[in-house]
Amino acid sequence: MSVPLAARACMRLSGRIQTSAFHLGATTAPVLRRIASALCSSCNIMHGGMFSSGSAGNGLKHREKSTLICVEGNIASGKTSCLDFFSNTADLEVYKEPVAKWRNVRGHNPLGLMYQDPNKWGLTLQTYVQLTMLDIHTKPSISPVKMMERSIYSAKYIFVENLYQSGKMPEVDYAILTEWFEWIVKNTDTSVDLIVYLQTSPETCYQRLKKRCREEERVIPLEYLYAIHNLYEDWLVKQTSFPVPAPVLVIDANKELEEMNRHYEENRGSILSL
Ligand SMILES: Nc1ncnc2c1ncn2[C@@H]1O[C@H](COP(=O)(O)OP(=O)(O)O)[C@@H](O)[C@H]1O
Ligand SMILES: O=c1ccn([C@H]2C[C@H](O)[C@@H](COP(=O)(O)O)O2)c(=O)[nH]1
Asked: Locate the Deoxynucleoside kinase domain: which residues (predicted)?
């Protein structure tokens, strides 16, 4: 008998909380407890907890908020390719990073401007990235599972942080972005259920970046990818820098595309929280 995706998500997620497949830190424990208490072990019925719920007409409460999976990783690590792979999955909505918007907002290219002069345009780009990420996080979902590329968290903890730590963002800009970020996280629902981290070497990303040849990114040196890589590792693997909003599934993404796709197929269940 075929079990609906949401029901399987429910069963597996509850089961996997006890496994060691994730890199868990102290900050993720409360999230796990909330998931565990919210998900029934045999169906997609919510029994209270982290999700808002409504009556299904039979007296039972059903999930109204979908499971959110964020695919994280360095620039050109293969996130879009990963989302492409899963894009035909039934009961799954996929949201790629809105790079097209970052390259063209009412005729302006904040991504290009930031790479040309990060001191001047870092705040501009990151304010817009934060808005577009918030838009995706809060989009009402019609499917039980939603997968998005990166998140409002990596925009802040990786990219804003990198600009600031490298001395390319004035303290006042960093303070304003932090105020915005903290307000958003406190007052809106940006909760995440699983982070899939595509772990790559900066050298692998550098080769893929050159192959992709996005005009704005021609100026990116290998050192920049090292900086982003280290921030990701501190956040999601060592878990020493910022709060981790969800359990983390780490995938070695250095392998060739065919092999990655094979891996995604073989591990479909754990990647989609089934
Ligand atoms: N596993 C892989 N092996 C080789 N090339 C890859 C692999 N994954 C992605 N690519 C290529 O590398 C480039 C960047 O991949 P992409 O999925 O756009 O990365 P991201 O979304 O993380 O920036 C693209 O040209 C893509 O076709
Ligand atoms: O918060 C952010 C998020 C992304 N960027 C940059 C990094 C890349 O040049 C593009 C898109 O990233 P991909 O990894 O290729 O998807 O946007 C940023 O500057 N700030």
From this structure: 69-265
Does the beta carbon of 79 lie inside 6 Å of ligand 2? yes
Tokens, residue 182: 């903290």
The SS3 assignment for 183 reads helix
Q: Which residues are catalytic?
A: 149
Measured from the Cβ of residue 148, the count of other Cβ atoms closer than 10 Å reads 23
- Ligand 2 close to Cβ of residue 155 (< 6 A): yes
State residue 64's pLDDT score: 60
Provide block-wise average pLDDT over 10 residues at a time, the chain (274 residues). 37 31 36 37 28 35 73 98 96 97 98 98 98 97 95 98 98 98 98 98 98 96 98 98 98 98 96 84
Across the chain, the runs of DSSP E, i.e. the strands, are 53-55, 61-63, 67-73, 92-95, 145-149, 194-199, 248-252
| CB-ligand 2 contact for 163 (6 Å cutoff) | no
Q: Nearest residue CA, atom 8 of ligand 2? A: 75
Q: Report the pocket of ligand 1 as residue ranges, CB < 6 Å.
A: 73, 75-81, 208, 211-212, 255-257, 260
pTM (predicted TM-score): 0.82
Please state whether 143 falls in left (phi above 0), alpha (psi between -120 and 50) or beta.
Answer: beta
